[in-house]
Amino acid sequence: MRKIIFLLSFVLLSSFFSIAQNVPSPKSHFGFEIGDNYHLANFTQTEQYLKKVAVSSKKVKLQVIGQTEEGRNQYMMIVSDPSNLANLEKYKLIAQKLAHAEDITPEEAKKLSMDGKAVVWIDGGLHATEVVGIHQWIETMYQIITRNDEETKRILKSTIILFVHANPDGQELVSNWYMRSSDTLKRTTSNLPRLYQKYIGHDNNRDFYMMNMSESRNMSHQQYIEWMPQILYNHHQTGPPGTVVAGPPYRDPFNHVYDPLLITGIDALGAAMSSRLNAESKPGYTMKGGSVYSTWWNGGLRTTAYYHNIIGLLTEIIGNPTPSSIPLVPQKLIPNSGLPYPILPQKWYFKNSIDYSISLNYAVLNYAARYKDELLFNIYTMGRHSIDAGSKDSWTLYPKRADALTELLKTEKPSGKIDSFQLTVFDKIYKNPTMRDPRGYIIPISQSTTAIQFINILINSGIKVQQASSDFMVAGKNYAAGSYIVKTNQAFRPHVLDMFEPQDHPNDFLYPGGPPVRPYDAAGWTPAFTMGIEFDRILNDFSGPFETLAYGEIQKPIGKINRSITNIYGYSFPTNDNASYVAVNELLKEGAKVYKNKDQYFVRFSDQLNASIEKLSSAHGVVFTSVTKPPTDTIQILKALRIGLWDKYGGSISSGWVRWVFEQYHFPFNLIFAQEIDTANLVSKYDVIVFVEGAIPPLKTEASVSFEERQPKMEEVPVEFKSMLGNITINKSIPAIANFIQKGGKVITIGSSANLAYHLNAPVRNALVEMVDGKEKSLPGEKYFIPGSVMQITLDNNNQANWGMNATADVYFNSSPVFRLLPDAIAQKQIVPLAWYASAKTLRSGWAFGQAYLQDGIAAFEANIGKGKLCVFGPEITFRGQTHASFKMLFNQLY
Ligand SMILES: [Zn+2]
Hints:
Elements: H1 2-21, H2 26-30, H3 43-56, E1 60-67, E2 73-79, H4 82-85, H5 88-100, H6 106-115, E3 118-124, H7 132-146, H8 150-158, E4 159-165, H9 168-179, H10 214-227, E5 231-236, E6 245-254, H11 260-279, E7 285-288, E8 294-295, H12 303-306, E9 311-317, E10 324-326, E11 346-348, H13 350-370, H14 372-390, H15 399-411, H16 418-430, E12 440-443, H17 450-460, E13 466-468, E14 472-474, E15 477-479, E16 484-487, H18 493-500, H19 527-530, E17 536-538, E18 546-548, E19 560-562, E20 570-574, H20 579-589, E21 594-596, E22 600-604, H21 609-620, E23 623-627, E24 636-637, E25 643-646, H22 653-664, E26 670-672, H23 674-679, H24 682-685, E27 688-691, H25 702-707, H26 733-742, E28 746-750, H27 755-759, E29 764-766, E30 769-772, E31 775-778, E32 789-795, E33 808-813, E34 819-821, E35 831-836, E36 843-845, E37 858-865, E38 868-873, H28 884-891
Parallel strand pairs: 3-4, 3-5, 5-9, 6-7, 6-8, 19-23, 25-26, 25-27, 27-28, 28-38
Antiparallel strand pairs: 1-2, 2-4, 6-9, 10-11, 12-16, 12-17, 13-16, 13-18, 14-15, 20-22, 20-23, 21-22, 21-24, 29-34, 30-31, 32-33, 32-35, 32-36, 35-37, 37-38
Helix pairs in contact: 5-6, 5-14, 6-14, 7-13, 8-13, 11-13, 15-16, 20-21
Bound molecules: zinc ion.
């Protein structure tokens, strides 16, 4: 009896506490239900709500994981049963140990899996105009904390949920923009005046191996250094027309460096998600070939997780606070394995999408709770596989190897029994020691500071990095103390291979001989190539005086000032190091005289110079060396040019990246918009104008008619954004740009803005054409197709435009323009080629079908026009702030 009374009072007490805690409902705080028509919550309101929830619930712990690019707090709400929250460090340590899979036996891992909790990441709001994202996030959090059903209790007991706000700045911008009209029917998320991430808008989901942006670094730190969630659920919008939501599993190809357990793990979660919707009579979930999303590429919030053995989930759901409807798409009314339960055309409300999202989150969390031990043990198993593969001779199953086998089966003479013949053929590839995966990589310390930036992207991504404490020798080569070593016998081996090795995208065609299937994003990216770092692949096991750096320990480039004792005339610093541009720009700002030859910058000694170079050396790693007399080579005197960087209303992502790069390297610049180009006296304000990808329309064809983007009317736009409206037009802007060049201005174009060369009648033509019935036509996809991939260009590095570059460089190519010169263009000094594709095989990483068409094509050139100059770069030399190897090609044009 006493026991019963005790139990009763316990039940009463705990229900009393749950009332006393009184977690505020979204309605009580925001003034509307999450999912109500015509209402969005902004970040300021959401931040206040998170703080209220944090003090009213024992099931949450609110954490600031860093600042955003606009300076707001970025939050992670950790949600679990209070008994778990009391032991958070213990559970985090278990998650880390299992993910790293180092120094623990399978038996110990089994035990840790039983003791640990499943860690599930649920984010919201990354792409801020996809407004379901942050609103489902708020509502799911509230429901998980306040619901008392058995399923919720089990979830809280067995899992630790990391609710991560993926883009605070974007939520503030988009929600305020939507809510700015008191007339609900006028509310829209369209026509935003600027990007929903300060620099890069939608590309904030293209930054997760590079982590240029603080939001990416904040989140990656939680993912790969702190928590290693076994499941990461990244919410997006919008599903394919005629469906409600696209989700896992995804279409092929997946990346060949993944563990098979990862792929089947995604399948299992996909089944849990779609089954739950089906069971709850929520039709319209599409998967596999039903949508365009694949698991090939690295760099997305969800996809970088794959390279760390984390089951990444992406859903793309429809829905908007302004009611919409499911359109009639006849083909989406046939059930198949990609869409088992079609949805009928109907009216659709924001609340419907919130409800679907909560079901999907619950499906994931329920799975995590019920299969917690397996999830924890599986991430250990994947890590273990990686360590084993990196500890012995291993061969990744690449498409190029299958092609080589197919070729051998055709060309080799069969001898003996067929099965032993096949084994002989197999061994020629898969026991060929030169084709092994590396055991590790050595990055010599004596190279440019970009190498340290490369090491830091590995470290920010939770990769184990070692550093040599003294000089050493491997495979007959000497390396200096301080050199870095990255071994592949570690849990996140897929990410290590991916950062150093070429991606081998399969030839993917709709049908044999048919058009290519465009990859969802890049086909190849290899940062070690596009950053231009020096490294050695080591195929055999190796050792040395290597010290392991602590996970997450960021490295700093070590600058130096080599001073002679007397007679210091000035200082030189190398042209091949990107950090030198920071130095040049700072020294020019201080009024110093800076000179340049092919190999060195040179600055004349002055009393104030010592302090400047001390600072530049320690902050940016620049190495200065004193000289006793003026250098004898030809010297260019540098002058900072007045730079205009094209941008547009709403914000160009490519321009945003260059804006960020300019800030990183301390280039002063102004943004310039179409209205100013059309009306201002450009030569009086600018020396150089930069047009990035997407700025300049093509020649007057059908394409250029649709090029002019629809923009809001002048009167619909707040006053501070009015000057940004307008497009680059063929009638007005192009003549103004031509006039600017004629009068001595310089114009730089990147990517498709090479169109300008045709508008200005520069003596070049498109190299990627064929003659059909006497007419010039672009090569069709069946013959030539190079989506985002890394290609090698060859440069004239004696030309001062290329000073500091090597004789070849790896560049990012994305269906980029390629040119041939008209006869006499060089002889008459109209065109100076800067870079070209020197052979029939210039692919370095990715997919380049028909790459032989590039041979002898021009990648970059300068054209002399009037008193000025047009500089055209076909490849995307500043791509996503990643392609450090080609930054100099732009920078050299800016003095
Ligand atoms: Zn999205």
